[in-house]
Design a protein that fits this description.
alpha+beta, OB fold (Dihydrolipoamide Acetyltransferase, E2P), 2 helices, 5 strands, 36% strand
């Protein structure tokens, strides 16, 4: 026959095992978060202005320098320490904001390279 003391012991064992699993899953989640957050590779703007990246998804970081909106056309310029690039975007950030931009690199004759921002 199980006494109250034995029930408490069994309950403590079950709770202890549950906490071990919870801790394990939490650690696993944090490790996966760190691994997958490193999958986005930021490229310097001067390096991204290269025909080998045209049509591919790229990610750059920098400071928003100028914004423009004319009818349905809107975008901004983003500058890192060495260079700048135009970004076609439906959402305009504030000038001076630090921003990471992911999008498809495009090239137009006589205008040059720009990034068409992707939205998740």
């Amino acid at each position: 026959m199980l006494t109250l003391h034995k029930y408490k012991s069994i309950l403590l064992i079950i709770i202890g095992d549950f906490m071990k699993y919870l801790l394990g899953f939490t650690i696993l989640g944090l490790v996966l978060l760190v691994l997958f957050s490193g999958c986005i590779s930021v490229i310097a703007i001067k390096d991204v202005k290269n025909d080998s990246y045209v049509g591919k998804e790229v990610t750059v970081q920098g400071t928003v320098e100028g914004t423009i909106k004319i009818a349905d056309l809107s975008g901004y310029t983003i500058k890192d320490t060495n260079d700048s690039i135009a970004v076609y975007s439906l959402n305009l950030p504030k000038e001076g904001d630090k921003k990471t931009v992911t999008g498809t690199l495009r090239k137009v004759p006589f205008i040059g390279y720009y990034i068409e921002e992707t939205y998740n």
